[in-house]
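Colleagues,

Please find the record for the two-part complex below.
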Amino acid sequence: AQTVTQSQPEMSVQEAETVTLSCTYDTSESNYYLFWYKQPPSRQMILVIRQEAYKQQNATENRFSVNFQKAAKSFSLKISDSQLGDTAMYFCAFMIRQYNNNDMRFGAGTRLTVKP
Amino acid sequence: DADVTQTPRNRITKTGKRIMLECSQTKGHDRMYWYRQDPGLGLRLIYYSFDVKDINKGEISDGYSVSRQAQAKFSLSLESAIPNQTALYFCATSDPQRGGEETQYFGPGTRLLVL
């Protein structure tokens, strides 16, 4: 079974600074997706960034980027120029890339607070 | 208007009661999902459906049932609610045919309290 571990229950960062959230996963599969979702106090789950395991290039979305280390099974999220609106729970998630398998596994989350 | 809606947004019920949570989507996606979120555990998959005739159990299906009434509607039922089903419930949709991606889009969540 696939497992996802987020080892940092809580983190904080000053506004405008950079923060990195950690995620590791365990799988014997070679073809899969990795995701970071954001859950602000409104509790809506919002996709932040997605990475396909077969792509060597790290995904980026504006201020958000990932460091995907496939051999180490590591998928960290870097937030640059942190903003107050980035305050949220962040969940790392894993899903096998298989047409009839949509069992997505989530980590326990990291609560990020951006301080003014 | 939101693409994925859930009703109700909040619900309080008593042990032993039957309760239904509803999800509707306007995204035209074939696949729909129900998750529950508990503090410290992230989200866990309850059931998912690839189309109206296809229902699959997820990681934690015991105590729950689902109904896919149409492509756009997917309901989750608790036949006899118990306090440890108190949680935040999310519906999600996806469609790998659209752009070849496999991203799930979530509704706003339903907070359920079982007394």
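Chain A touches chain B through 26 residues (CB under 8 Å).

Comments are welcome before we finalize the supplementary table.
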